């Protein structure tokens, strides 16, 4: 690891020792890039992306990075990871080889490509580590710019810890809010909207966020003239520079090959950021990319000879080397020895990582060969499969299991003890492989929603009928009083208490630090929630309407939903995304894009409460749990009357537990959210026609009906209709797959299952638009009647 340089306290010998150590880290990192590329090109790894050309500025940045600080960067930051001790060279190569063996790749368990780092925030049981005692790295994602949204939240947490004394008891998460959130981004990615949104948000919030821009003048093959106005992002951002009485940024610009200036700038910039709690931007220019963008191609294809010559001349390591000689920090012989040792060290680490990866598979390879050979005694043609597998010197797990599964298929007509042994081994390995490659979609720790005690709502003679919004308001009030970690923010949430008054009066009661208005910036509202949650707080991040969640879907899908999975459970972010949708008026305020969420947000819970009491129970569960969720409140339910539970802040709703709202014998209807009221109204009319409808509310779509209430109903009624506000083939197709395939409901049908969905377009404005584009009482009534007619036309004559 690197050490800070304090010229006033160091002797020249100490200074030389630190500089030579830094040069050693830079050389090792460069060699890791060179060797890593070679490993991909020789076929040992699938793909590689490296941080060559960025070594020296990352060493300078690492000197200012302290225990408790956070990084939210991207896949060029390997030197920083080596310099801070977040990663070793061997771990770097283990990730390149996608080694899923426990401990080999401590950042992602073999699930992410190289240079995607993370530190362990969460223990096996889901409890938090002491985050003040480690250098924290939030899990990287590949989409360039995607790290910026989360960065805002990581920095904002420091502001809350510093200013809200009620959080002082959270000793494992902050030391008086002194932590800086470090972000990195490439110059080309500053063209993305999430970058500008995050820069503006941090300037408004005045938070300790330090963003470094690695500027090598290209974005893959596209030069800066096509990327950035004036070809200079710090020039573009000059208006953000703070002035007396006008808060903003401190902006610094420094050449990426100038070691002493980099150390000086980073020390100064981070001190300002940490002490004054203001955002800083360090634009690191004149960087190079010696090996090009990645292993997918060569930069010689698109860079001119002059540019390539310039990059050789301005390589940051060569420039540091020359400065060390000129400044008498080291001799030519000393430097040559450092470079030689770096090559040997990295080569040995690479070999060790590769051998450990193969060694983890070889026992399985041998077992598979022996088991297949055993069956070959009865079925000689299988001997070739065993021989082919044995001939692969560096077999990977895929090749082992391709052979095993083929042997199982080809021996289907052979019954023997040897085949039974192979099958038993294969089933045992399925458990191990699930853990290696499929586990931890959710944190599944001791605070999992599935482990929260279920408490029923209580009512007494004093329970009042109130507007649905008042149920929510009472729920939020009780929980904010109970748990100081809770914070809420969003557009119009604070001063007016949100557009539907769920938070009315609560900002005045709990203060602006806990209940806060934001600008119109959906991506960084989500990022604000992710960062806060990663630092131990309990954020409610509000998106005003479900339609607007599309603006933030990249952040939720790429980052939040995949966090537990891509870190194999060592990080978590229990964000509650609060929004409202379903029926209201018009194209932009009647959103039910549920299939889009189902396809994008696996790893989150998707709650679709039918009324505000159920919503409150879900919030009560989520406030006590540690997994992320989206809660979609019914837009047309805020002023409908509901009875206020006396335990409004305590009762809970189990996520994934479906509920039978009305029992029936003729047909099962599954629906959710606002559509359930439509179904219930239709059921009343159908009862007059002698048709008994069983209505099921799954309550959550992720997870869906874990107790299989739907199929139990279907076994009685033998008919299924799914009523859905999403587009045709949207969430209704998901529900059919769950009920018919997963729950095996197909075997209980005596007729074709049906779906009744919205039209393929968004609903036009007005009540007529709603009636003719989303399922109505008439639509539901006639759809069910038609299904009964199809089954018994004599009893139920045709309507049309």
TrEMBL record:
Pfam families: E1_dh (PF00676), Transket_pyr (PF02779), Transketolase_C (PF02780). The keyword Transferase does not apply. It comes from the Bacteria. InterPro entries: DH_E1, THDP-binding, Transketo_C/PFOR_II, Transketolase-like_Pyr-bd, Transketolase_C. Signal peptide: none annotated. E1 component of the 2-oxoglutarate dehydrogenase (OGDH) complex which catalyzes the decarboxylation of 2-oxoglutarate, the first step in the conversion of 2-oxoglutarate to succinyl-CoA and CO(2). This is 3-methyl-2-oxobutanoate dehydrogenase (2-methylpropanoyl-transferring).
């Amino acid at each position: 690891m690197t050490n800070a340089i304090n010229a006033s306290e160091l002797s020249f010998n100490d200074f030389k020792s630190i500089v030579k150590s830094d040069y050693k880290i830079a050389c090792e990192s460069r060699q890791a890039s060179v060797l890593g590329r070679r490993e991909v090109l020789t076929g040992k790894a699938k793909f590689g992306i490296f941080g060559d050309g960025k070594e020296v500025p990352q060493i300078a940045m690492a000197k200012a990075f302290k225990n408790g600080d956070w990084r939210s960067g991207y896949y060029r930051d390997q030197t920083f990871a080596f310099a801070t001790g977040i990663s070793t060279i061997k771990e770097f190569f283990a990730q390149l080889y996608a080694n899923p063996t426990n401990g080999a790749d401590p950042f992602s368990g073999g699930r992410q490509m190289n240079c995607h780092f993370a530190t362990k925030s969460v223990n096996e049981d889901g409890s938090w580590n002491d985050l003040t005692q480690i250098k924290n790295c939030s899990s990287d994602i590949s989409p360039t710019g995607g790290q910026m949204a989360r960065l805002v939240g990581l920095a904002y947490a420091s502001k809350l810890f510093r200013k809200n004394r009620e959080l002082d008891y959270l000793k494992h998460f902050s030391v008086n809010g002194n932590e800086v959130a470090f972000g990195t981004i490439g110059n080309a990615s500053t063209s993305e909207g999430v970058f500008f949104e995050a820069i503006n948000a941090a300037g408004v919030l005045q938070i300790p966020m330090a963003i470094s821009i690695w500027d090598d003048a290209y974005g893959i093959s596209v030069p800066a003239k096509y990327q950035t106005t004036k070809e200079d992002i710090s020039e573009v951002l000059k208006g953000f520079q703070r002035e007396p009485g006008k808060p903003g940024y401190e902006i610094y610009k420094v050449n990426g090959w100038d070691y002493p200036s980099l150390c000086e700038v980073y020390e100064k910039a981070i001190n300002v950021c940490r002490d004054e709690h203001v955002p800083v931007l360090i634009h690191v220019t004149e960087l190079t990319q010696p090996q090009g963008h990645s292993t997918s191609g060569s930069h010689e294809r698109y860079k001119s000879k002059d540019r390539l010559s310039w990059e050789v001349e301005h390589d940051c390591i060569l420039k540091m080397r020359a400065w060390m000689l000129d400044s008498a920090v080291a001799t030519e012989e000393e430097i040559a020895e450092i470079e030689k040792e770096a090559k040997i060290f990295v080569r040995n680490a690479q070999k060790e990582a590769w051998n450990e990866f193969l060694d983890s598979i070889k026992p399985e390879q041998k077992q598979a060969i022996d088991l297949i050979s055993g069956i070959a005694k009865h079925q000689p043609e299988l001997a070739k499969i065993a021989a082919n597998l044995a001939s692969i010197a560096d077999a990977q797990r895929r090749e082992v299991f391709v052979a095993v599964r083929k042997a199982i298929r080809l021996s289907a007509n052979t019954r023997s003890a040897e085949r039974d042994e192979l099958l038993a081994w294969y089933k045992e390995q399925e458990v191990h492989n699930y853990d290696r490659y499929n586990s931890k979609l959710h944190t599944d720790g001791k605070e999992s929603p599935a482990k929260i005690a279920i408490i029923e709502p209580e009512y007494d003679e004093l329970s009042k009928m109130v507007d649905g919004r008042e149920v929510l308001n009472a729920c939020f009030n009780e929980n904010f009083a109970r748990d100081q970690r809770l914070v809420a923010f969003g557009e119009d949430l604070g001063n007016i208490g949100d557009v539907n008054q769920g938070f009315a009066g609560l900002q005045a009661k709990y203060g602006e630090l806990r209940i806060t208005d934001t600008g119109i910036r959906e991506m960084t509202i989500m990022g604000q929630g992710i960062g806060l949650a990663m630092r131990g707080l309990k954020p409610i991040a509000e998106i005003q309407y479900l339609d607007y969640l599309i603006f933030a879907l990249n952040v939720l899908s790429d980052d939040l939903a995949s966090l537990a999975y891509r870190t194999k459970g060592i990080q978590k972010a229990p964000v509650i995304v609060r929004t409202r949708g379903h029926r209201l008026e018009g194209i932009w305020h009647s959103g039910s894009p549920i299939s889009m969420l189902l396809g994008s947000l696996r790893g989150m819970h998707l709650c679709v409460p039918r009324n505000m009491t159920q919503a409150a129970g879900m919030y009560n569960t989520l406030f006590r749990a540690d997994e992320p969720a989206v809660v979609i409140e019914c837009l047309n339910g805020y002023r409908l009357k509901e009875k206020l539970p006396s335990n409004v802040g305590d009762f809970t709703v189990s996520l994934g537990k479906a509920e039978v709202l009305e029992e029936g014998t003729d047909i099962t209807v599954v629906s959710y959210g606002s559509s359930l009221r439509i179904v219930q109204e239709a059921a009343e009319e159908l009862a007059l026609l002698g048709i008994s409808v069983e209505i099921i509310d799954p309550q959550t779509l992720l997870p869906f009906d874990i107790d299989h209430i739907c199929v139990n109903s279907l076994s009685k009624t033998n008919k299924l209709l799914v009523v859905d506000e999403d587009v045709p083939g949207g969430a209704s197709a998901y529900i059919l797959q769950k009920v018919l395939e997963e729950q095996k409901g197909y075997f209980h049908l005596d007729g074709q299952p049906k779906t009744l969905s919205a039209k393929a377009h968004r609903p036009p404005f007005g009540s007529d638009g709603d009636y003719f584009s989303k399922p109505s009482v008439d639509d539901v009534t006639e759809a069910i009647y038609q299904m009964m007619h199809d089954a018994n036309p004599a009893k139920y004559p045709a309507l049309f």
